[in-house]
Amino acid sequence: MGALKIGLQLYTVRDSAEKDFEGTLRAVAAMNYEGVEFAGYGGKSAEELKALLTELGLTAIGSHISLEQLENNLEGEIEYLKTIGARYGVLPYLQENDRGSDEKWLALIEKLERFGEAFRKEGLIFGYHNHDFEFTEKLDGNYVFDTIYEKVSPERLQVEMDIGWVQYSGLDPLAYIAKYKGRLPLLHLKDYRKGEPGEQIDTVELGQGDLDLPSIIASAEEADVEWIIVEQDRCANPPLEAVKTSREWLSENYKS
């Protein structure tokens, strides 16, 4: 059990990154984030991005890669990750037309096997990032989330657990972290306040929502998580200000 490393999913600051990708990375590095997880590369070549990350002292954790990109440019995505020194490629989300039936989930599982094998052969790690629908839909009598990991081998698929969505779905986040010990290198810390039924999830800065973050972080250490990754879907405050607040909360409340 080692100290957790602290990263940021750059989707959180997507508006800033779209206007000034390099400036956004510089701001994130100045906040003492140790690494970043990408959701797009700001139009930079892999070589350019590698040089910038080296200059800033930021680790490339990995990248969120859409199903369409994985299907149409798998080799290119893998090569880009290798060049920037990243270890993880993660499928972050499924559109509604890619899920919702046993047939669609089974087809996805076949794809996850294929993608994961391609990553494994190149020395990289493939993962899947959950939302809430993996806990509202079932396959083979279990939540889809669990069935996916039962059917795809750990060598081909690791867990990137979004702990906010786990709790939002009414499940015990500490139990789920413990359940996937040894297969859970990446944990997304997404704090939120649960509103009225039917409302969108209200994501907030760390420490301002419903999650028992100290217990979650302690459980992550016990489960051999490598990276805890800050992510906020929508920010009431300016996103760069929000992720700075979250990083400061971690500095004050987590001593590695």
From TrEMBL:
Keywords: Isomerase. Residues 25-251 form the Xylose isomerase-like TIM barrel domain. InterPro entries: IolE/XylAMocC-like (IPR050312), Xyl_isomerase-like_sf (IPR036237), Xyl_isomerase-like_TIM-brl (IPR013022). GO terms for molecular function: isomerase activity. It comes from the Bacteria. This is Sugar phosphate isomerase/epimerase. It comes from Paenibacillus roseus. The lineage of its organism: Bacteria, Bacillati, Bacillota, Bacilli, Bacillales.
